[in-house]
Amino acid sequence: MPELPAGTVTFLFTDIEGSTRLLRNLGNDYADVLAEHRQTVRQTLARHGGAEVDTQGDAFFAAFGRASDAVAAAAELREGPLRVRMGLHTGEPLLTEHGYVGLDVHRAARIAAAGHGGQILVSQSTRDLVDAELLRDLGQHRLKDLTAPERIYQLGEGDFPPLKSLHRTNLPVAASALIGRERELAELRELFVGGARLVTITGAGGSGKTRLALQVAAELADAHADGVFFTALAPVQDPALVLSAVAHATNVRQVDELRQADAFLVLDNFEHLLPAAADLSSLLAAAPAVKLLVTSRVRLNLSDEREFSLDPLPEDDAVAFFLDRARAVRRDVRLEPAVGDICRRLDGLPLALELAASRVKVLDPLPLLERLDRRLPILTAGARDAPERHQTLRATIDWSYGLLEAPLQQLFRRLAIFAGSFSLEASESVAGAELDELAALVDWNLVKPIGDGRFLMLETIREFARDLLEDSDEFEELRDRQLDFFLGLVLEAEPNLTGRDQRRWYDRLTQEHDNVREALAFACDRGDGERALMLSGSIWRFWWTRGYTAEAGYWYERALALAAGASIGARALAEFGAAHVAESLGEEAETRARFERAAELLREAGETRLLISALTHLAGAYRELGDRERGRSVNEQALKLAREGRDVRGEAVVKSNIAFDFLVAGDDDNAAVTLTQALEGLRAVGDTYGIGAVLVDDAIVALRRNDAERAVSDLREALQLSSSIGDTQTLAHAFAVVASALGAHGDWHGAVTLAAACDAVCRGHRFELGSLEREMADRSTQAGREALGDEFDEVWRTGADVDVGAAVELALTSLGH
Question: Could you say which architecture CATH assigns to the domain 404-472?
Fold first, then answer.
């Protein structure tokens, strides 16, 4: 991005008229002509102090600190051999790291688009800053950005056809330019150019359907000799009056007079008038040159209808939209992290963003963000000239809700029980949903399908539904059913997190984690110790591998406080999970005490599979506390139990821990043999998690033996397997070993970067490395500091800033070298 002027800026837009025709005429010579034109434009901009902002094809967007310089540059460009149309406009746009943001950019582009080849058009604001004698007043014109009429001037005396501005239209004046939606605008234009005659834009309330429809109509105005017209249907309550409203908007006595018209009609807010949909088919049949663009929260279900579903704004467009609206009430609003967070919190919903932006007059973005935990109460500052249902976000959602039949209203309320997305199975089991009813809510854009049989209610919409649900007499019953459903899911998932299908189960728990939290909160809130202990105790491995250390500790503290009266099995599971939290935190004494209690309870409950795991982890705690002999004895007990129960995985896990004991003791030969045996067992059962962890230890042996090829092979496989299931815990250990491997081969940049990444992951997730890996990471860090000297701090910062995924890629790349 070049150095761009700030403050009062004059924009210049240029493009070549008839570039497609020129391409056909010149053929292969067109590329040379275009290259020469670009060079001329850039030289001209440079001579007059202009900064090139963007270039697309034959079009240029430039900015000048002085209006007179911009006019001089445009006048010089007009003398070239090509018919270049140009537009100039002056304003005070917001300059961000991504370029200019604001209405002034759109206004300048629209002024240029209204002209013809060889014509230079100038806005009133630019005219006020230059020699007016050079300009010819062309009068006021409505441009296709739909904002208020603009007085346009022409530089020079040439005669040109009438400007390409709006005529024969009642399209309302828009408060601001359309931001984002370029792809949607292009697709809708193509639909009509391609022959579509009835298109319905559907989407949630406040998603920007009306503004997009108006812009489509403006863009297509030149293609319809009899004009483009807008019919506001929100005030119409009787379906029988729809055609009368259309006739009034198009200034005819009755719609029959449109039979011969070449017109484009926008019908806004049709959702409450669906019985009149058949009248639209009749209109199209009688008037072959008429085209209809309808906005509705639900499709019309007509045979010749093309539905165009409108999603909320993508994040970048949402940020630009918010900034533009915020600067309308407070010009000093700047791009900051809180702005992006606000846009994400509001689902990119244009109405929600607009209402929130109005609040920056009294609240900076950060305190505004903090108040958005409850969105609806703060989003109430709509413009007075906006439709009543758009003056608050609650009102626009309530409009949709009020149009639903009673069974759909009930399901809409019930689905608010879910946090985040939910599966069809969960909606059926917990909310009593039927597929047809769920599909109807999808049609009404109150629920969004997101693939894989899952659905999502935007948080802004869910908050409205949740308020209704909490006021109903079925709220507690639904929470109870939700708890039962997700407890069942977690119980089913727990043994599968170490099997061949573990990746799918990790992904499923990732999808449902928000719902598990909701269920767990309910169990704790109502004092249901049995289910709180069972749920938290069964999801321990997911929390362990994914690094939810602090959160898991919070839930175990709450659940174990309710242990009185709970079953032995439930208490055993929770103690077992809480012991893993202590182990992650490196709290050796706490780890030993909790695994001792867990082992005792698991033995009493007859839960041998988890008892084997508890014992071998307990052995590791004894080792870390310096009691190696006791640790060895406990591992022998665990190994015996695994063999007696023919638990292949359990035996492999115990062997891997015995091998680690050998590693710590410096007995690499026995460690290597035992690790090989452990790997055989884990590969036999397809345990991705276990294989990854053991390969990291095997790489340590290889490094000690100076077997670089095996170490690299082990580490590459470990990184790939562990990252495939999101096992952050094992990856942190792997980064420490990779750092040691890279340092051993003199790659100190890589070694220090990975050591810093390891440290950042451990700090971020509150992991504590074992003594062996900690020593390796510290040794790499110290040696890297000596090798890199003054570079060390910068390299360390780079590693500390990379996320886990980037660190994995860096490790794999470095090992490949």
Answer: Orthogonal Bundle (1.10)
Residue by residue, DSSP assigns 441-464 as HHHTTSSEEEETTEEE--HHHHHH
0.85 cut: is pTM over it? no
- Give the up-direction half-sphere exposure of residue 377: CA atoms within 13 A in the CB hemisphere: 6
Fold for 9-155, please state it: Alpha-Beta Plaits (3.30.70)
**In the block, residue with structure tokens 């939209």:** 321
* 789: helix, strand or coil: helix
CATH assignment, 182-309: 3.40.50.300
The domain segmentation of the chain, as residue ranges, is 9-155, 182-309, 315-395, 404-472, 511-689, 692-816
Q: pLDDT tens digits for 488-538?
A: 999 999 999 999 999 999 999 999 999 999 999 999 999 999 999 999 999
User: What is the rounded CA–CA span in Å between residue 601 and residue 569?
Assistant: 7
Q: Report the distance separating Cα 69 and Cα 45, nearest Å.
A: 9
Query: Tell me: the pLDDT tens digits for 290-326?
Result: 999 999 999 999 989 999 999 999 988 899 889 888 8
CATH of domain 511-689: 1.25.40.10
**If we measure between CA atoms, which residue out of 507, 515, 509 comes closest to residue 491?**
509
Is-contact 441 415, C-beta < 8 A? Answer: yes
CA angle 477, 482, 484 (to 5 degrees): 95
- Residues with Cβ < 8 Å from 740, sequence gap 6 or more? 703, 751, 776, 777, 779, 780
